[in-house]
Design brief:
Oxidized Rhodanese, domain 1; 321 residues; 2 domains; 8-stranded mixed β-sheet; 4-stranded parallel β-sheet; 10 helices; alpha/beta
Length: 321
Amino acid sequence: MSRYQRQSMLPEIGDAGQRALQQARVLVVGAGGLGATLLPQLAGAGIGYLRIYDGDRVEEHNLHRQTLYTLQDTGELKAACARLALNARNPDCVVEARAQTLSASTLDDALESIDLVIDAADNFAATYLLSDTCLPRRLPLVSASVLGRQGYVGGFCGGAPSYRAIFPQLPGSAANCNTAGVMGPAVAALGALQAQMALSILLGFSPSPLGCLINCDFTSWHFRQFRFDGADEPDRPGVPFIDRKLLASGDCIVELRSLEEAPYSISDCAVRVCPEQIEHWQPPADRRIVLVCASGIRAAKAAMQLEQRGITRLAIVAANR
């Protein structure tokens, strides 16, 4: 019996659809909670090539929701463990594991020969970076986020509006599962939805998940879906996310983290400005202002204040390490 018989017998898939999945090349950014569910689903469905980016190692507190890993994997690189686990499940799926965090300077290489991108990093900086890059390339992007018992999943770019068309501004807080907690089944549900969206896009199902967002609330058991096919892109491009490799010699680097939070900034030339002081801070003329914080949220708020003062040469670095 064929490994894929139970799905290829569906008339909307068939042998042609199964061949399309075998030829597909998918980039998955993040092999944590979301990735631990969606990666086995994609490999099991017969995706021919998976490229995984994740620079973290397995920790014991991950295991309640990152069920792709075992206690014996603790301390090992997630990307490498994911590759071994997926190869054991389906050796026909070629898995390329890159044990590094995706950043602006590595994005071109990450996207080489890729058909679809899945954002499983649950990190706002990564999401905006991926959306900004996928939109002009018309690359489909499936992104999800989950916190506590709530989350969402959506299909962006690839001919549909971008993430910024729906979420033009970063959220007001940097809460994540590390700081606010999360339930494992909620993460798994969102990861499974990402996998289903990705397969539906690759198979050309109609209606397409691109231009669709689903909110899942496991607190009140509400599931809401809406389409945003006609959403307008922001009038102005968003402030780009960069990394330290993309800093230029003439940049004015503004460190928004305190000395206690970050004793060493990303550059010896950085000036420290408290976020509360940005309103009165006088930036140097004719230099790009690079705003640095841990998640990008404080930097985005500071960028908005500077834009209101007519300063437009801006960039953000989310230096969470």
